[in-house]
Amino acid sequence: MSGSVADRRPWLYWLPALALMTLIFMLSSQSGLRVSEDAAVERPIRVSAHLVVYGTLAALFLFALARGGRPSRRHVTIAFGLALLYGASDELHQSFVPGRAGRVDDLVVDAIGATVGLAIGWAVLTLRARRRIAE
Question: Which end of the chain has less neighbouring CB within 10 Å, N or C?
């Protein structure tokens, strides 16, 4: 039997993305989740969190779709769509949580974060695949 455990069980590539999705859902379920009452402090932190979290989620989707190998444009497109779809579902979910609101501007920030995360994920996975070929 050759290959890694993940190669024999491709669903394992999805576990990191599922773990992050679970964390996002749990945080979104908390009423009035705030760092500060001061909008000048709260807004930049919230925007930064959305950028980082959805960038990471999109990169994890890309990793899962490419099974840790070299990604294709199709993988990038699907990963972006999944991240945006999850962002939209998260904003919808927040609209039902007391003290929270679903915001379109947060979804725009999620899309920007996903784009940056996919660019970084593409670069990392492509370089890693090239190194494997060179070895």
Answer: N
DSSP for 18-63, written as a single string: HHHHHHHHHHHTSTT--S-S-HHHHHHHHHHHHHHHHHHHHHHHHH
Evaluate whether 9 touches 59 at the Cβ level (below 8 Å).
no
Tokens of 72: 């294709």
CA distance linking residue 79 with residue 55, whole number of Å: 11
Q: Tell me: the pLDDT tens digits for 70-121?
A: 999 999 999 999 999 999 999 999 999 998 888 999 999 999 999 999 999 9
Q: What is the pLDDT of residue 74?
A: 98
Read off φ and ψ for residue 65, nearest 5 degrees. -65, -40
